[in-house]
Design a protein that fits this description.
Elements: E1 2-7, H1 19-29, E2 33-38, E3 51-61, E4 68-80, E5 85-90, H2 97-110, E6 115-117, H3 120-125, E7 141-144, H4 147-159, E8 164-169, E9 179-182, H5 188-202, E10 206-210, E11 219-225, E12 228-236, E13 251-254, H6 259-272, E14 279-285, E15 288-293, H7 300-307, H8 311-318
Parallel strand pairs: 1-2, 1-5, 5-6
Antiparallel strand pairs: 3-4, 7-10, 8-9, 8-10, 11-12, 11-14, 12-13, 14-15
Length: 319
C-alpha cells in the first residue's frame, strides 16, 4: 500500500518536531512506499486521471528521541490516486475557507475509492471543539454572537461563585486568541464592549467556558487510533500560566489515563466511527474532554518521546 501525505510546504513547518514528517519518515523506514504531496501540486480536474506530483525524501531522528535531526526532499515522481492508496490529510489548521475547499476536493477523491485519513466529510461537518462540547458531561460552554445569552452565561458563572471564565475562537489552534477573564473586573457595560470587540476580531462567534483551575497543573493529550490508546502525556503550563500548549512553553511528561478518562475517549471513538475517523488526539481536563483533535492530530513526536516508543509504527500497523 502506498501512503501519500498531503502536507504544508516545508518552510511552513517546524521540521524538527512535525508529526507528519515524523510519520512519513517512520513509514518509509518500515518499508512502506511513502511520498509527500504539497499544496502547490494539489488540484482537481474532472476530465482526466488524478495524477499528482509527489516527492521522495530522506531524514533521520535525533539519537534517543523521535525529534528529527534532519529532513530533505529527494526526487519527484507522478502517481495516480486509486483505491490501492491511503491519502493522509495533514494540512495544519486554521480551519478556514482554504482548508474547507481542500476537504471538498478530497471528498470527490474518496468517491473514487481512495482511502483518506481522517474522513473529509466528517471533518467538514464536525468542528473539533464543538464535538467535544456535546453531551451531559461536557464543560459549561457558550458559543455564539448573542450578547444577551452570553451575559446570562456570565450571570450563571457568578452564581456558582466562579472567579474566571475563558473566551476563545472556535476555529484557531495552539492557544491563539484564548483569554482568561476575571469576572469581578467587568460590569455589564464592560462585558458588552469586550464581547463586541472579540466578535469583531474573530469575525464570527466566540466561545465562552467555565474556567477549570486544574488546567494550571496540566492538561492531558491522549492519542487514540482505531479506538485504542497509543499513549498520553500531561502538558504542564509555564509557572503562573494556564495555556497547556507546548508551542507556547508548556513542558510534558508521560501520564496514565484513569479508567474514567479512557472510557470517555473510547466511547467518543465508537460514536464517531473507527473507520471514518481512526486518528483522534484528545485534550482532557479531569474527566472532561476539552477538545477532540480530528483535523490534523499532533504532538506525535512529543508523546512518542515521552513514552520512548515510536507511535507512528503503531499507526502504520493499525492502517
Amino acid at each position: 500500500m502506498m501512503h501519500i501525505l498531503f502536507i504544508n510546504t516545508l518552510d511552513k513547518l517546524d521540521i524538527l518536531k512535525d508529526s507528519s514528517l515524523m510519520m512519513a519518515l517512520t513509514f518509509k523506514q518500515a518499508g512502506a512506499a511513502t511520498y509527500l504531496l504539497f499544496e502547490k501540486d494539489f488540484y482537481y480536474q474532472n476530465n482526466a486521471e488524478k495524477t499528482f506530483r509527489v516527492y521522495d525524501f530522506e531524514g533521520s531522528f535525533k539519537e534517543g528521541s523521535y525529534y528529527l535531526n534532519d529532513f530533505s526532499l529527494l526526487s519527484e515522481r507522478t502517481v495516480t490516486l486509486d483505491a490501492s492508496m491511503t491519502l493522509h490529510m495533514r494540512i495544519d489548521p486554521p480551519f478556514d475557507t482554504r482548508y474547507l475547499m481542500y476537504l471538498w476536493i478530497l471528498q470527490t477523491f474518496k468517491k473514487t475509492g481512495v482511502r483518506i485519513i481522517n474522513d473529509p466529510a466528517f471533518v467538514t461537518l464536525n468542528n473539533e471543539k464543538l464535538v467535544a462540547y456535546e453531551g451531559p458531561s461536557a464543560m459549561p460552554t457558550y458559543i455564539g454572537t448573542s450578547f444577551d445569552k452570553f451575559y446570562q452565561f456570565i450571570q450563571d458563572e457568578l452564581a456558582k461563585n466562579h472567579e474566571y471564565i475563558i473566551i476563545k475562537p472556535l476555529d484557531l489552534y495552539q492557544g491563539l486568541g484564548v483569554e482568561k477573564l476575571k469576572l469581578a473586573d467587568f460590569n455589564k457595560t464592560k462585558w458588552q464592549k469586550k464581547f463586541a470587540d472579540k466578535i469583531f476580531a474573530l469575525k464570527g462567534p466566540l466561545v465562552a467556558q467555565e474556567y477549570i483551575p486544574s488546567v494550571e497543573k496540566g492538561e492531558v493529550r491522549a492519542i487514540f487510533f482505531h479506538g485504542k490508546e497509543l499513549g498520553s502525556i500531561l502538558k504542564i503550563p509555564p509557572a503562573g500560566g494556564f495555556l497547556a500548549n507546548i508551542a507556547s512553553g508548556a513542558t510534558y511528561r508521560e501520564v496514565q489515563l484513569t479508567p474514567e478518562q479512557r472510557e470517555l475517549c473510547e466511547k467518543f471513538c465508537a460514536k464517531v466511527g473507527l473507520e471514518e475517523v481512526p486518528w483522534i488526539a484528545f485534550d482532557i481536563l479531569g474527566n472532561i474532554i476539552s477538545e477532540a483533535n480530528i483535523t490534523c492530530p499532533g504532538l506525535l513526536v512529543e508523546v512518542s518521546t515521552a513514552l520512548g516508543k515510536n507511535l507512528a509504527k503503531d499507526i502504520l500497523q493499525g492502517i
